[in-house]
Amino acid sequence: MRRESHYDLPIIQARLRRDAKSPMTSAPTAAGHSNSTSTHHGLPVPITVARGDGIGPEIMDATLRILAAAGARLAIEEIEIGEKVYARGNTAGIDPSSWDSLRRTKVFLKAPITTPQGGGVKSLNVTTRKALGLYANVRPCAAYAPFVPTRHPKMDVVIIRENEEDTYAGIEHQQTDEVVQCLKLISRPGCERIVRYAFEYAVQNGRKKVTCFTKDNIMKLTDGLFHKVFDEIGAEYPQIEKEHWIVDIGAAKLADSPEDFDVVVMPNLYGDILSDVAAQLTGSVGLAGSSNIGSQCAMFEAIHGSAPRRAGKDSANPSGLLHGAILMLIHIGQSDIAEKVHNAWLRTIEDGVHTDDVYREGTSSKRVGTRAFADAVIARLGQTPVKLQAVRYQNTATRTSSATRRPRATKELIGVDVFLHWDEADRDPRQLGARLERVAAGLSGVRLKMISNRGVKVYPDGFPETFCTDHWRCRFVSTTADAPINFESVLQILAAVHAAKLEVIKTEHLYRFNGVKSYSLGQGE
Question: How far is CA 323 from CA 57, 285, 318, in A?
Fold first, then answer.
């Protein structure tokens, strides 16, 4: 359901002028929407707003009041999302008419929502990011020491996370009584878009280094592709320092010495985890906002949740959502307003006006609630911090780009992995191997190469110490070393395995792309 917002910014701004008994200066001309959606001279930019669940309505109220007081040029459409929509039986948490608003304005300022547990409902955040093609998640994480206590007072890191792929494709299956799977999907276009975005962000924001985190020592194809694309695209930016870390030691280094990093780009899952870690390292995850950027649309939000236990208590910190809104203002070409709001926020923090989550005796001067914190920021509009570094924003946003289409590779089928649900004979791999050897003996041109269990080769020459579940990968290849097979051979293998009363649960073809084997070996194969 979409409705016109009762937050009409011109009306709010008029009320603020009246309350202050002083005229508001006219705002500078808005530059256009950075991704081809432009506005005429001085006219408001259409955006879609959702007030969310839990503390969402309170922090959205505070954020919109600050934007209005700062002179933001916005035309707001308000939509309903989250709990109330889920309660109507909509498992997506958003009505079709709301999509119309998002696709029309192309800019979404969203408060946190509560996603019900179970019941087949889907995460609205993930759905929105994927449906609107919001491939880049950007999370600036800066320290505000000594006013917000942190062990890392020089920290100023931007985490750029791929937003659509990886395990977040959400493709999962239960395959046996004991084993479920989640498919990790990484595409070259997805890697190219996010890596190029990271380097463009660094260039346009005066950053000196881009770091890539992957786990390509283990996931050589998926994470290996991400690392390879990072190296390829990084070569086009000789002015930017580049480095790669294996994600586990990289995460340890980020937690220990975040000041050694500048821009960090990584696949979806690692980015989701480490962007929250990085935000907490600054002193509070509640201060961080994020942008979700696509070639057509963008979404801006706080990175924290809806905190339903704090709802209605006027105690929530609106800073995370406000920082998301600052990123939105930059995106739509209102960097002058973004700068004014951000500097007023810095001055408020510096003056010790703090909400409960960051209030500290001896550091803070005044404990305030949500509404009073917004009032304090509004009172400081036009001021800059004295001790913290003031911000200066360009009137541009980071450019987005499309991926390069490449010629289709030469593709050869050279084998097949047949996955079985088998739970017999004390799960002895030698028993299963003997049955499959008899199957292969009746086929022409193919042989059983190995059986693995949870990725570890258990036949032939497996170890009795290896623990086995009821889920088995059985690899068939040509009897001639590395020779191609055909699809008819795969069908014959499946028919013979079925005739042997073994339960096939899935298959994966083994290919060579442009002459290179493009599948993982079993551990010990």
Answer: 16, 12, 9
Across all residues in the chain, what is the average pLDDT? 91
With a cut of 80, say whether residue 394 has pLDDT above it: no
Q: Which residues contact 308 (CB under 8 A, 6 or more apart)?
A: 53, 54, 55, 114
DSSP letters along 213-249, please?
EE-TTT-TTHHHHHHHHHHHHHTT-TTSEEEEEEHHH
How deeply is 95 buried, as exposed, middle or buried, from its count of CB atoms within 10 A (0-12, 13-18, 19+)?
A: middle
Half-sphere exposure of 161 (CA within 13 A, CB side): 25
Q: pLDDT of 349-364, one tens digit each?
A: 999 999 999 999 999 9
Q: Select from 204, 210, 249, 209 the least CA-distant residue to 227.
A: 210
376: tokens are 């304090």
DSSP for 435-500 reads HHHHHHHTSSSEEEEEEEETTEEEETT--TTS---SEEEEEEEESSTT----HHHHHHHHHHHHHT
Which pLDDT does position 119 carry in this prediction? 65
CB 397 within 8 A of CB 107: no
Distances from the Cα of 451 to the Cα of 172, 180, 435, 458, angstroms:
23, 18, 12, 6
| 199 to 93, 204, 205, 230, 317: CA distances (angstroms) | 34, 9, 10, 10, 32
Give, to the nearest 10 degrees, the angle between helix 56-70 and helix 9-20.
70
pLDDT of residue 413: 97
Contact 227, 244 (CB under 8 A): yes
Question: How many other CB atoms are found less than 10 A from the CB of residue 407?
Answer: 6
pLDDT (0 to 100) of residue 450: 97
Q: What is the pLDDT of residues 398-438, one digit of tens each?
A: 888 778 888 999 999 999 999 999 998 889 999 999 999 99
pTM as predicted: 0.88
Q: How many CB atoms lie under 10 A from the CB of residue 224?
A: 16
Per the CB < 8 A criterion, the answer to whether 210 and 234 are in contact is: yes
